[in-house]
């Protein structure tokens, strides 16, 4: 079941959206400000975020900006749902990282269509990560076969060097191996018996230490550098 985080200070709208989206078989969390939204995101990463712009404490623009500044928040689909429909507002929303911008009042069918489209786009990104893993895995198996042949013939195997140790803590390293196998935060949480928030914290630390921006770059880095401790 896909998880949606709804951020809006209008209690009635939050209630309506929660009911409507749950009828469509989504798991929905609702909060009333950007500050609460950041806390909700850290506790349990959603599959998509729908946010108002004008809110107390932290508005939607600032929430989106802070979210996109985090490595773990860069690829989460984000839709603004706001009464602020001026061209400048819509341009600002897109410029700080929103994937879409829908102006109130809105048609629920259009919102549902946008949600489904962005979730499908996210699925394709994840699929691409898995494809990258598969491509490198096939290449590694071919090189391994060549190396075995070379050893049998008394030759030195190619690319037999050992990768440098990862600059990670043991806990971060366990998450690293899970991520490069294509597992989501929720799957890693279940496999390692830790909270999704802890997984996200470790992943953020990993990306920062390796100077990478997102999971796709991490997968490429792992295989290009020869970190091949992967279960296939």
The CATH H-level homologous superfamily of the largest domain: Response regulator
Named at the architecture level, the CATH assignment of the largest domain is 3-Layer(aba) Sandwich
If you compute it from the alpha carbons, what radius of gyration comes out, rounded to the nearest whole angstrom? 21 Å
Note the gap between the termini: 26 Å
Number of strands: 5
Q: How many domain modules?
A: 2
Shape: elongated
Element order: H for helix, E for strand: EHEHEHEHEHHHHH
Secondary structure: helix percent: 55-70%
Which strand order spans the largest sheet, edge to edge or round the barrel?
2-1-3-4-5
Topology:
Blueprint: E1 3-7, H1 11-23, E2 27-31, H2 34-43, E3 48-51, H3 60-69, E4 78-82, H4 87-95, E5 100-103, H5 108-152, H6 170-179, H7 185-192, H8 196-209, H9 215-224
Parallel strand pairs: 1-2, 1-3, 3-4, 4-5
Helix pairs in contact: 2-3, 5-9, 6-8, 7-8
Your description of this structure?
The structure is a single chain. With 232 residues, the chain is of the alpha/beta class. It has 2 domains: 3-106, Response regulator (Rossmann fold); 126-224, Winged helix-like DNA-binding domain superfamily/Winged helix DNA-binding domain (Arc Repressor Mutant, subunit A). Helices cover 56% and strands 10% of the residues. The chain contains 9 helices and 5 strands; from the N terminus they run E-H-E-H-E-H-E-H-E-H-H-H-H-H. It has helices at 11-23, 34-43, 60-69, 87-95, 108-152, 170-179, 185-192, 196-209, 215-224, and strands at 3-7, 27-31, 48-51, 78-82, 100-103. Strands 2-1-3-4-5 form a 5-stranded parallel beta sheet, with helices on both faces. Helix 5 packs parallel to helix 9 (215-224) and helix 7 (185-192) crosses helix 8. The longest helix has 45 residues, at 108-152. The protein is elongated. Pfam families: GerE, Response_reg. It comes from Hyella patelloides LEGE 07179. Keywords: DNA-binding, Phosphoprotein, Transcription, Transcription regulation. The modification 4-aspartylphosphate is found at residue 52.
């Amino acid at each position: 079941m896909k998880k949606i985080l709804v951020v809006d200070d209008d209690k009635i709208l939050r209630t309506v959206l929660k009911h409507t989206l749950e009828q469509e078989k989504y798991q929905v969390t609702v909060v009333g400000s950007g500050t609460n939204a950041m806390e909700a995101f850290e506790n349990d990463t959603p599959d998509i975020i729908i946010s108002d712009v004008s809110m107390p404490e932290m508005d939607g623009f600032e929430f989106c900006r802070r979210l996109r500044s985090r490595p773990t928040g860069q690829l989460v689909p984000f839709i603004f749902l706001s009464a602020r429909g001026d061209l400048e507002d819509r341009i600002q929303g897109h410029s700080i990282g929103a994937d879409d911008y829908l102006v109130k009042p809105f048609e629920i069918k259009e919102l549902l269509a946008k949600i489904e489209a962005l979730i499908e786009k996210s699925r394709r990104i994840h699929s691409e990560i898995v494809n990258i893993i598969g491509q490198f895995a096939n290449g590694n198996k071919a090189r391994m076969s060549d190396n075995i042949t070379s050893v049998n013939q008394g030759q030195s195997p190619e690319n037999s060097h050992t990768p440098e140790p990862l600059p990670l803590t043991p806990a971060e390293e366990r998450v690293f191996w899970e991520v490069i196998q294509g597992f989501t935060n929720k799957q890693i949480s279940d496999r390692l018996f830790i909270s999704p928030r802890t997984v996200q914290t470790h992943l953020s630390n990993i990306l920062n230490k390796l100077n990478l921006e997102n999971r796709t770059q991490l997968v490429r880095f792992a295989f290009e550098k020869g970190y091949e401790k992967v279960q296939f």
